[in-house]
Design brief:
The complex is a heterodimer of chains A (about 180) and B (about 250). Chain A is an all-alpha fold and about 180 residues long. Helices cover about 60% and strands about 0% of the residues of chain A. Chain A has 7 helices and 2 strands, in the order H-H-H-E-H-H-H-H-E. In chain A, helix 1 packs across helix 2, helix 1 runs parallel beside helix 3 and helix 5 crosses helix 7. The longest helix of chain A is centred in the middle third of the chain and has 23 residues. Chain B has about 250 residues and is an alpha+beta fold. In chain B, strand 3 and strand 4 form a beta hairpin. In chain B, helix 1 crosses helix 2, helix 1 packs parallel to helix 3 and helix 2 packs across helix 3. The chains are: A mainly alpha (about 180), B alpha+beta (about 250). Chains A and B meet through helix 1, helix 2, helix 4, helix 5 and helix 7 of A and helix 1, helix 3 and helix 4 of B.
């Protein structure tokens, strides 16, 4: 049975806001993105019956709205698609130090956008790379690579291990515009 | 599949259940089952990712977000009921769909978080992205709506500004004084703040346009006209703002 308007809000608003915040890095923009997503859902998506499909639709819509916002404000950082680099994953035996929710969100927001969006979806919803690939509309191989690398970088940041530049070499064609 | 390839696959499955239909995962698992070190790495990765997920889910959204979303969704819900009723009795679904304007009262004015002199407040509110209470692409309908909310608009408004595609507006209550914000879309968003001059007597504005360059490529213009004070903000150059104010004299 499909959920009603208010139930949809209750079920998904927290994680949608967290996703929006990690994308936009702005509480106000995250608020707007979350609100706009639900309003679009009310206008266009409320005929979706499956809860799983509804959730996926909400994430996809929020991401598209973010892209529009980013395009308008020229705040997006674009990376070329990268092929998988099997050798780049490293890990240590070290346990993670004590950290809280704010630490995770702050460090998540420090990740490059292409890693951040995949990693956030992964942690928030335990989405598989196939599902993330559909939501972000990028190839599966790219998601796999970005997810694995992004998680690696996040763990290093949590351990305060400094810049992972040796592991992740951004393509020379990286374009950075706007004032992010 | 070698150990590195298997590691990459397994790194994507450290949360939730093992997939039922992923041949690559099955192959990676075979590698891990014959490689205790890899299996041990995967177990550690699962534990750490579970820890990170748990913390991330503790991150609290703003306390008033849920109430604001409920209020806006309630407005949509009522709109839909009205639309269906019209469709049933009048069979003018198509025209109604076009006429169905978005009207949402969020009920919570977070703009009070912004303080300081009018111009600073207007700029900061614009820069952070304002929340609007009425949306319409037609600027005439936006100004009509503001007047219906008992907001007294000046007789003359910038013609070029009003000729753009509207986004929406919101009546604000700043320090017990009424301020209206109107937003339009002209490649970037322009925000026009309007208030009665007598309510902002400390604001020293001239009867001609003044421009100030702000951070991150933003420009602010301010002026006084007909007993009202105006602030125009946008992430645009002074030249762009001047263009938006062409054909209008304070």
């Amino acid at each position: 049975m499909a959920l009603g308007f208010q139930e949809i809000v209750d079920a998904y608003y927290q994680n949608l806001y967290r996703f929006a915040l990690s994308l936009s890095k702005s509480p106000d923009r995250a608020w707007d993105l979350t609100q706009e997503t639900f309003l679009i859902w009310a206008r266009k998506g409320s005929s979706i019956r499956s809860e799983k499909a509804t959730k996926s639709w909400l994430y996809t819509t929020l991401y598209r709205e973010f892209l529009k916002l980013a395009k308008r404000g020229a705040r997006i950082v674009a990376l070329e698609d990268q092929s998988m680099d099997y050798e780049s994953l490293t890990d240590t035996e070290a346990e993670l130090p004590n950290f809280d929710a704010e630490n995770v969100m702050e460090l998540l927001m420090e990740l490059k956008i292409e890693y951040r969006k995949a990693v956030t979806l992964f942690y928030l919803e335990s989405y598989s790379y196939k599902e993330i690939s559909q939501i972000l509309d990028v190839p599966i191989g790219t998601v796999m690579s970005r997810l694995a690398r992004g998680k690696d970088v996040l763990r290093r940041k949590l351990r305060n291990e400094g810049s992972p530049n040796k592991l992740i070499a951004y393509p020379k064609t990286e374009r950075v515009s706007g004032d992010e | 599949m070698n150990e590195s390839e298997a590691k990459l696959i397994l790194a994507n499955y450290t949360l939730g259940e093992a997939p039922l239909d992923d041949a690559r995962f099955d192959e990676a698992m075979k590698v891990a089952q014959s490689d205790p070190e890899l299996m041990s790495w995967w177990e550690r990765a699962k534990k750490r990712d579970s820890e990170i997920k748990g913390k991330l889910l503790q991150f609290e959204p703003p306390s008033d977000l849920k109430a604001a979303l409920h209020a806006s969704m309630e407005g949509v819900s009522k709109g839909k009921v009205r639309r269906r009723s019209f469709m049933r009795y009048l069979a003018i679904a198509a025209s109604l769909a076009l006429a169905f304007n978005l009207y949402y009262k969020y009920g919570i004015d977070r703009s009070d978080e912004y303080t300081g002199p009018l111009v600073e407040r207007a700029f900061n509110y614009s820069f952070d992205g304002p929340r609007l209470s009425y949306f319409n692409k037609d600027t005439t309908k936006i100004t009509d709506w503001l007047e219906e909310q008992d907001f007294e608009l000046p007789k003359e408004l910038p013609t070029r500004f009003l000729a753009q595609k509207g986004i929406g507006c919101r009546p604000l209550n700043w320090s017990d004084s009424k301020v209206a914000i109107i937003c339009i879309d002209a490649d970037v968003v322009y925000h026009l703040f309007i208030a009665r001059g007598e309510e902002f007597e400390n604001v020293d504005l001239k009867k001609s346009f003044e421009f100030e360059t702000r951070k991150a490529g933003w420009t602010v213009s301010k002026w006084e006209s007909g007993g009202h004070v105006f602030v125009l903000t946008a992430k645009a150059s002074q030249e762009n703002l001047e263009s938006m104010l062409a054909e209008y004299t304070p």
